[in-house]
Amino acid sequence: MSKHSLSKFGFAFGLLVPAILLLPHPVACDEDRDNLLQGINSYRTSLNLLPLAKNDRAGCLADGIADQLEDHPCVATTTANAIPGTGPQLSNYPNLLSKCGIHINNTRDGVILPVCVHNRVPTLVLTNYTRTGYAGYLNDSRFTGAGIGVEDNWIVVILATSTQQGSFASGSSLGCELSTGLGFICLAILGLILYSH
Ligand SMILES: *[C@@H]1O[C@H](CO)[C@@H](O)[C@H](O)[C@H]1NC(C)=O
Ligand SMILES: *[C@@H]1O[C@H](CO)[C@@H](O)[C@H](O)[C@H]1NC(C)=O
Ligand SMILES: *[C@@H]1O[C@H](CO)[C@@H](O)[C@H](O)[C@H]1NC(C)=O
Predict the structure, then answer these.
(1) Per the structure, how many domains does the chain have?
(2) Does the C-beta of 171 come closer than 6 Å to ligand 1?
(3) Could you tell me the distance, in angstroms and rounded to a whole number, from the CA of residue 138 to the centre of ligand 3?
(4) Is there a domain that residue 19 lies in?
């Protein structure tokens, strides 16, 4: 191998490793989540609203929040439990956001709806969304997407909007989060790409 092709190989390899690290983490395909989304969407259809599309980043965040709630006492579903998209009550919210590659500005119009149902009995979970104060959020055409997280007795539904402020998208179009170490790798790659041209 010539020195030149070796450095090309090194360059390609150097790109590959961070590229793999940057791939979004696959959201576990869980039957509970799919069934709940289906139930919520049937409810939406019955109200003449469009079904909610799956939002993977919101789902990642919902999983992180459900994980946090696991140790909390089970509370009844009331609108008071709804968390605004900015989630000030959660101490590690910024970490959860950066882990899921979400910019906080893109969470403002969203809403986080936690529910606790022992053993996550599917019918009870669904009615805790459709027959409590949460129903008002489901019956709202502003919301167009949803991410669902589950952990133990907790279920978290995050509703996303079609606007930027409720999209749960990353801040930059490249998906590079400058708040994390990965942001530095993104910058390094950008630099390399620009330099090689
Ligand atoms: C996020 O929102 C704040 C306050 O509205 C604004 O100052 C800031 O520039 C925004 N950041 C981005 C990346 O849009
Ligand atoms: C919500 O779930 C709880 C169980 O955690 C159940 O006792 C209650 O009846 C449910 N409420 C609705 C409106 O489905
Ligand atoms: C849903 O919202 C519409 C419009 O705001 C309202 O007219 C309707 O009564 C609501 N339905 C339910 C079941 O909450």
Answers:
(1) 1
(2) yes
(3) 10
(4) no
Tens of pLDDT, residues 103-133: 999 999 999 999 999 999 999 999 999 999 9
Distance 142 CA to ligand 3 centre (A): 13
Q: What is the DSSP string of 108-149?
A: TT-EEEEEE-GGG-HHHHHHHHHSSTTHHHHT-TTEEEEEEE
Q: Is residue 52 part of a domain?
A: yes
**Which ligand is nearest the CA of 46, by number?**
3
SS3 of residue 52 by DSSP:
coil
Tokens 């119009």 map to which residue? 109
Cα 184 to averaged position of ligand 2 atoms, centre (Å): 46
CB atoms within 10 A of CB 17: 10
What lines the ligand 2 site, CB under 6 Å? Answer: 77, 116-118, 124, 127-128, 131-132
pLDDT tens, 54-96? 999 999 999 999 999 998 999 999 999 998 877 767 778 999 9
Give domain status of residue 31, yes or no: yes
* Domain residue limits at 103: 25-171
What residues contact residue 71 under an 8 Å CB cut-off, 6+ apart? Answer: none
CATH number at residue 116: 3.40.33.10
Model pTM score: 0.76
Point out the ligand 1 atom lying closest to the alpha carbon of residue 103. Answer: 13
Nearest ligand 1 atom to alpha carbon 105: 1
